[in-house]
Amino acid sequence: MAKITLLHWNIRNFSRNKLNNKNGPPLINYIASVVAESKANMISLIELKPSAAAEIIAELIPAIDKANEVLPPTEWRAVKIDSRHKESYVVLYQLGNDFEPLKGDVGDDPINYLTQQKIVDGKPGGTVPFNRSGGVGDPSAKSGGRTPYYVVFRTTDSDPKQNFSIVACHIMMGKYTEIGVRSAGEIAQSRVILNKGVKVEMQASFTAGDFNIDFNPAFPESYNKLLDFAYQATNFKTSLKVLPPDGPQLSYGYRSKAFDNIFQYHKTGLAKPDNGFVFDLINASAEAGSGLFTEQATPFKREAISRGRGKLIKKIPPVTLEDSWRLVLYAISDHLPVYVSMII
Q1: Full-model pTM
Q2: Torsion of CA 269, 275, 276, 278, to 10 degrees
Q3: What pLDDT is stored for residue 307 in this prediction?
Q4: Which of 39, 40, 53, 185 is most open to solvent, judged by the fewest CB atoms within 10 Å of its CB?
Q5: What total number of domains does the chain contain?
Q6: Is residue 6 part of a domain?
């Protein structure tokens, strides 16, 4: 049976400028260290700018191998697509873990695409109301915003083989966000696809994303359709506060909402709720915290942090939680990574 460990991360506004300034190399190495620490063999990244996605992948993969102390040739492959909202979805997977992409009709390309299909009579047949183009201010945003992305994989160590999918969502923030979150629970490819006209059921799936609505398991509301068939990886907050938090004593006080999550489905019911992890980068990057990523935080440069916000950081490497919070927020992302494991 294949053990899948998926890491989801919204790395805010990951553009070529963010990649190619002085903080680009330490950012890549920081991300790679998070991947290595999580022991992830699959990664779903969102909010990468389309013009930068290929270059980010090219630099990130060898950095992950180095962090994992793996010698070339690389163990990683990637599939990506433009979300049509000025960002790309990227899914990376590690070879040698008893799974591989399910191939389509043309060449060796894995089955993957933007998805607006929902299940009708047990197979993809209807349309989920995501808008295919446009963005903030586009009238079609009332359909819930960005279209999700899916990639299908198949285990190689079992008979019969098990199919599973990664569905990546970045739901647009605004008054129509709830529509997008509800629609995420109706996506067909989280449970079934059509391959050459034949229905192929998913034995498992991971619906991972930044949903831009606070998740409260006691009052799931917009998340009800996701929870109809899947369990949440975490109940913890993942987005960071933008305004100074007046010095909370605990790193959790620097977080704002539970926006990011992975909803895991397993046909046999093996997935369990709240069995995932949120990397507390505030605590991990500070000498006053665990110090897990203090070494990786050390090479960041104040002058390369945009809008002069680097001047607000008293010490690099961060000593206090507040220094760490500012470094993570301004130089890395305003969202924390989430990861979860499941046996398929």
Answers
A1: 0.95
A2: 150
A3: 84
A4: 39
A5: 1
A6: no
